[in-house]
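Thread: quick sanity check before group meeting

JM: Hey all, I'm pulling together slides for Thursday and realized we never actually wrote out the predicted structure for the chain we discussed last week. Dropping the sequence here so it's in one place. If anyone has concerns about the input, flag it before I start.
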Amino acid sequence: MKKIAVFTSGGDSPGMNACIRAAVRSAIYHKVEIYGIRRGYEGMINGDIFPMDTQSVANIIQRGGTVLKTARSKDFMTPEGRAKAAKNLKKHGIEGLVCIGGNGSYTGAMTLFEEHGIRCVGAPGTIDNDLYGTDYTIGFDTAVNTAMDAIDRIRDTADSHNRTFFVEVMGRDAGFIALEVGLGGGAEAVFIPEQANRKNWIEELFSKKRRRKSFSIIVVAEGEEEGGAMELAAKVKEKYPEIDPRVTILGHIQRGGQPTAADRLLATRIGAASVEALLEGKTNVACGIVNNEVSFTPFEEAIYKRKDINPQLLKLMDVLNV
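JM (edit): ok, ran it. Output follows.
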């Protein structure tokens, strides 16, 4: 393999630039030509492909977002769009791809290989930490620290006014951010998609014993089955009119900002390992770190297998909030 390319796809996450940097410099180290693709699959279709060198990735390891930009591509979902993308790659002589993204990005890469034989190794770039085959995804640690910093600030106001705050964090299909933020931020409760059928949760949360507390911080994943933070706060107000809950939705601030040291190291290891995997002939696999060792998981498993919440952390939430 003489020429490979790297691109970012789907939602951005802190640490993507560190992963791009590692992939580019690892390719150069192995004497392989490396290209960048701007705006993910959309750029692949439009031919926005350019050569990269060591200077292309200078001074980016500390930056959030992605210097290669990202986009969601409806055209790539069609056979015609994928054919055009493959044609552009082959025009440049590109034989392999490093795809930094999540489930949707992996699905696109898998389909591209099946239809056009373009090899690809995935790097898990998503703050949600919901990809199977890696202990942590690139951007998760930064997102948790960003959300926890916000909760520390909200706590000051909650304490000053003796109020209950519902804080909504990202996690449409998974509660990894909410659970770690809840534990690290000293929240009284967390609501996550993995906890289904929570009956009588209002009574349990605002029982006479717990209501003696001067204030409460409750962390809600946006995909919680009872609804988001606004819906949960409204249900509490209806049940207990004397409680005056406030809602803070953190939203996209969790995706931005400088990546933490943990995310930079994770992204660097995965970026370099992804390039080496391509050169060893691997394809249709996602690179990750499991038990502090580089690991590779078939795309089908990484996409469709569910990554479970740690039950010990869920139990710890109950233990600490007696």
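AS: nice. The first strand starts at residue 3 and ends at 8. The domain at 142-255 is CATH 3.40.50.460 (Rossmann fold).
JM: adding both to the slides.
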